[in-house]
């Protein structure tokens, strides 16, 4: 599997990005501010993530997504670890990530990759999304924020 930065002339893989965030409007907004990376297996895009600088020494990992047919193969972990290495190599001091209160697998993944919970943005998903979102039988209300010193 090859992970690379999306070339300027390439279209962002919206089908993958929308797996992690159902709001096309929000996805398009952070694509404008960030750098998109894709994972390919034999010319098929199987994963994606976006990095956005939020403060001078801080970068945020957003929209980690893996094609549904390729989940459970460790691709998500490889994407997160790749993002951490890109952030380190770029000279950032901190990398942050946010996920939903009901995103149980994602919370475990980020912690396995060295992130620590730092705060909760209460009612984030109520303020930013028009329709309720459910995961694992739990409604998304809050954004759980995690970070890692690099």
Give keywords.
150 residues; alpha+beta; seven-stranded mixed beta sheet; two-stranded antiparallel sheet; 5 helices; 9 strands; 31% helix
The separation of the N and C termini measures 25 Å
How much strand content do the residues show? 35-45%
The neighbouring-strand order within the major sheet is 1-2-3-4-5-9-6
Low-confidence stretches: none
Mean of pLDDT: 96
Please describe the biggest sheet, giving its number of strands, its sense, and whether it closes into a barrel: 7 strands, mixed
Total E-strand runs: 9
Account of the protein in words:
Helices cover 31% and strands 37% of the residues. The chain is globular and about 35 Å long. The strands form two sheets. Strands 1-2-3-4-5-9-6 form a seven-stranded mixed beta sheet, with helices on both faces. A two-stranded antiparallel ribbon has the order 7-8. Strand 3 (44-55) and strand 4 (58-66) form a beta hairpin. The protein has five helices and nine strands, in the order E-H-H-E-E-E-H-E-H-E-H-E-E-E. The chain has 150 residues and is of the alpha+beta class.
